[in-house]
Specification:
single chain; about 250 residues; alpha/beta; Stationary-phase Survival Protein Sure Homolog, Chain: A; two-stranded antiparallel sheet; 7 helices; about 25% strand; binds manganese (II) ion
């Protein structure tokens, strides 16, 4: 069997300490190629650059930065830079949790989703901005050593979040709900014209449903959530009679 090929990316950018740590740990398990944005592209979700050129620069051995999005970087890996399809796509370690509905905004999670859609085993890793990256190392190594023993159904990724403090252990979790307290603030530029700034000061409120991601990390556990890319609602899809009565 040929050596395992691992594509590592993120949305915080190639200069992030989190991507270095992930690439270093991953290198124990195969050949790692890093392709990541040349700047912070957090909260860019699955954006794909279809109407502008994308540049890529070699910045080290098996290490490239691109002015594209995280999903662009995954595509550059699969369809250009790598000689074959990677076995694993690993995204992170992101500074900032991706809990509950964060996954819809996250470029970190989106890169793992893209890897999965293109046929690799994929995972996203995130840590609160107040956390210590070093604390993620032992479980990262364990996770990557063991995760092939737990195959997932197709179209599923792992979303891993680390607690702020030294983890007590690991929990298999569901996806929580959270309330955002975002605001749109209007400010004035030096020429007196208005501009807008999105993002509230206060932290989000999590539902903290038992067994879900936020509850786990807030209780100091590592949260490991299987995320299903099929977002259709299985229960609602069966309500065809009711639907027919209403919509014909
Ligand atoms: Mn980020």
């Amino acid at each position: 069997m040929s050596e395992r090929l691992i594509l590592v990316t993120n949305d915080d950018g190639i200069q992030s300490e989190g991507i270095d740590l992930l690439a270093t740990v991953a290198s124990r398990f195969g050949r790692v190629v890093v392709i990541a944005p040349d700047r912070n592209r957090s909260a860019i979700s699955s954006a794909l650059s279809l109407h502008s050129p994308i540049r890529m620069n070699e910045v080290g051995v098996d290490r490239y930065s691109s002015d594209g999005t995280p999903v662009d970087c995954v595509n550059l890996g699969f369809y250009h830079k790598l000689e074959r399809k990677p076995d694993w796509v690993l995204s992170g370690v992101n500074y900032g949790w991706n809990l509950g509905e964060d996954v819809f905004y996250s470029g970190t999670v989106a890169a793992a989703i893209e890897g999965c859609l293109l046929g690799a085993r994929a995972a996203a890793f995130s840590l609160t901005t107040r956390g210590n990256l070093e604390n993620t190392k032992p479980f990262l190594a364990t996770f990557l050593e063991q995760w092939e023993k737990m195959p997932l159904p197709p179209q599923t990724i792992w979303n891993v979040n680390f607690p702020q403090q030294v983890p007590l252990g690991v929990r298999l979790t569901g996806q929580d709900n959270r309330a955002y307290h975002d605001v749109v603030e209007q400010r004035k530029d030096p020429r007196g014209k208005p501009y807008y700034w999105i993002g509230g000061e206060s932290a989000p409120t999590y539902s903290r449903q038992e067994g879900c991601d936020a509850d786990a990390v807030l209780d100091q556990w590592i949260s490991v959530t299987p995320l299903k890319l099929d977002l259709s609602h299985p229960e609602v899809v069966t309500r065809r009679d009711e639907f027919k009565r209403i919509f014909g």
